[in-house]
Design goal:
- With 280 residues, the protein is an all-alpha fold.
- The protein has eight helices and no strands.
- The protein has one domain.
Length: 280
């Protein structure tokens, strides 16, 4: 199957122009666009996966960021309103609702701006498949990224403590965000599963890959990491989250799959919640 290099739409064989966007189809367009490692021939030599192969560009990325930011307003209001009805579990309920509403917002934004009316599927473009990249190696790389992120966070917190700066110190997680007893599984489901999956979909799959075509690999890593960091709002986590964003973008670029990124992200979130809930 052949695709337009500009918009990703399936091209009509031997056509001179794309019937969707009108782009002139070059001779290179006569070759299959191997956008997914895991498809025949789409292994290490296909450097376009997750980068220039995606049909969206900087404009869609910028609009997507704005839309997700704007969605924070109704999501926050609805979550707090529902949480107020939960009595003593108001904070845990608010967090759980907000995580799922934000996940829905991200999915809608990415779908409308990235895949609406596209013939190339998210599974192909984002690496939502079993990658041809060696699974064991990808898993070890994910664990390495997780370890590096945690190590940097510990070092950063130690350095900030030397200067007694409350502003720059990473904030403590409020234990009230977790449901009590067996219901804590809902907290882990939201923070260590839904959040990593949807944030990786947006920040690595959509933002990073969309910016690479315009800015190149390194600048796209830096910009996407900065956006990822800014979304966390708190000044105390801006630097460690930025570094984590760089590591995750690198991991996505190397493995051509979102799953190692989700694994590393989920591990960090799960560990943070577990340490607070169980007081380890």
């Amino acid at each position: 199957m052949f695709y337009c290099a500009n918009c990703g739409t399936t091209r009509i064989e031997n056509a001179a122009y794309c019937h969707n966007c009108g782009q002139v189809l070059s001779t290179a367009s006569n070759q299959p666009l191997l956008v997914a490692q895991g498809m025949p021939g789409g292994a290490e030599d296909n450097e376009s996966i997750g980068t220039s192969a995606v049909p969206w560009r900087g404009g869609q990325v910028a609009l997507g960021i704005v839309l997700v930011l704007l969605s924070l307003i109704p999501v926050t209001g609805i979550s707090i309103g529902i949480g107020a009805l939960a009595g003593s579990y108001d904070e845990a309920t608010t967090v759980w609702i907000s995580v799922h509403l934000m996940a829905l917002s991200i999915i809608v934004v990415v779908w409308r701006l990235g895949f609406h009316r596209r013939s190339v599927t998210p599974v192909q473009l984002l690496g939502l498949f079993v990658t041809e990249y060696p699974v064991v190696r990808a898993g070890l790389m994910a664990l390495g990224v997780l370890g590096a992120s945690l190590l940097f966070t510990v070092i950063y917190a130690s350095v900030v403590d030397l200067f007694n700066s409350d502003v720059l110190s990473p904030p403590e997680i409020d234990a009230d965000i977790a449901f009590p007893g067996a219901a804590v599984i809902l907290t882990f489901q939201a923070i260590a599963l839904v959040t990593p999956l949807t944030e990786e979909l947006f920040f690595r799959g959509f933002v990073f890959s969309g910016l690479t075509h315009r800015f190149g690999l390194v600048k796209a890593m830096l910009i996407s990491a900065a956006v990822f960091s800014a979304f966390h709002v708190n000044v105390g986590v801006l630097v460690p989250v930025f570094v984590t964003g760089l590591l995750l973008a690198w991991l996505y670029h190397k493995t051509r799959s979102l799953w190692p990124c989700v694994l590393a992200h989920a591990g960090q979130n799960a560990l943070a919640v577990a340490l607070e809930v169980y007081g380890a």
